[in-house]
Design brief:
Length: 348
């Protein structure tokens, strides 16, 4: 009876091994089984197709025959590391892997490693996938993205140049004007145009065309406004307190125009007759995906009866319209100090 039982067990083992071989043979990926010495014990038909070797050419040979020459020196050490702690895992996670065909050509692969216990000792079954097609498609996508970035960069560059041409035309017109009221209106228009120029310039220089580094934008805008209005920095100090705030273009342009209007108004009206003082522009990320913008000055203050939403001045009308466009809320403190605050959500 014991002999019959042993024969039955052997038959079951043989049947199991045969079933395993059939599964490996039918696998859609190249399958290569290697023993502890690094010799190939089993391959399937897909491995023959992928590597270009016949089964007879691979069996009993070192697995390094399938490894590009520049990696062969280190491969035995990597095998030893895996054998010291065998568990199923992808090979070389996070790295680009390559295999070598019979004709010497190389191709990108993904490899899954699976330790297997057999009668002949521990083995490693490798599932190898040729990812050449995927890599080619990824490279096409990267090339398309590079072309898109170049195109967007060129668009922002040309928009900036065209706005600068308009600015120059206004400058030319200003030189021929004697009416200070009209000249002031043109100068205000120039400030708005320069604000938009700086937005596009910031985008073009950052190479990120989806979002504007608004702190960097303000760092360029405020000195430009100081120079434009010929302010004496010893008489009026300007302080920027801006943390890292990234705004999408659709938000950055109206927000930039709001800062331009508020700071320009301060320069024009808050410090008459040589009055000294300071201006603070503050920008920070608020709660719940929102931004807090504040322009503060210690000048003469606002008229007590000022209604920002029903004012006759173009600058404050623009501020209110642009704040509505941003879905924002304006807060005004009329004096001691004068404070314009804007809370608005960041559009994703």
């Amino acid at each position: 009876m014991a002999k019959v039982g042993a024969v039955s067990a052997d038959a079951a083992l043989h049947k199991s091994e045969e079933r395993f071989r059939r599964v490996v043979e039918a696998a859609p990926n190249a399958m290569v089984m290697v023993n502890a010495a690094g010799l190939i014990e089993m391959v399937n038909a897909q491995a023959e197709r992928v590597f270009g070797y016949s089964r007879e050419e691979m069996l009993g040979r070192s697995v390094e025959m399938l490894v590009p020459e520049r990696y062969r020196h280190d491969h035995p050490g990597l095998r030893a590391t895996f054998n010291a702690d065998p568990h199923s895992r992808p090979m070389g996670a996070g790295r680009d892997l390559y295999a070598r065909r019979k004709d010497g050509s190389e191709f990108p692969v993904e490899i899954g490693l699976n330790p297997i216990d057999t009668e002949d000792g521990p083995m490693v079954l490798s599932a190898i996938v040729d990812i050449s097609d995927r890599k080619q498609k990824e490279e096409k996508i990267r090339a398309a993205l590079r072309e898109k970035e170049i195109l967007l960069g060129e668009i922002h560059h040309r928009v900036k140049n065209n706005l600068q041409i308009i600015d120059s035309l206004l400058d030319l017109q200003l030189s021929k004007l004697d009416d200070p009221l009209v000249a002031g209106m043109l100068r205000d228009s120039q400030s708005r145009i320069r604000s938009m120029v700086l937005i596009h310039q910031t985008l073009y220089q950052s190479k990120d065309f989806a979002r504007v580094d608004f702190a960097a934008f303000l760092d360029s805008l405020l000195p430009t406004l100081v120079a434009s209005y010929g302010l004496d920095s010893n008489r009026i100090t300007l302080t920027l307190e801006a943390r890292d705030v990234q705004l999408p273009l659709s938000t950055a342009i109206p927000c930039g125009l709001i800062v331009n209007e508020l700071v320009t108004n301060v320069f024009k009206h808050a410090f008459p007759d040589g009055r000294r003082g300071g201006v603070w522009v503050r920008l920070a990320n608020g709660e719940e995906n929102a931004v807090e913008l504040e322009v503060v000055d210690d000048g003469i203050g606002l008229p007590p009866d000022l209604d920002a939403k029903n004012t006759a001045t173009l600058g404050l009308q623009l501020v209110c319209l642009l704040a509505d466009q941003l879905g924002g809320e304006i807060r005004i403190g009329a004096a001691s100090p004068t404070r314009f605050g804007l809370h608005f959500p960041i559009q994703r």
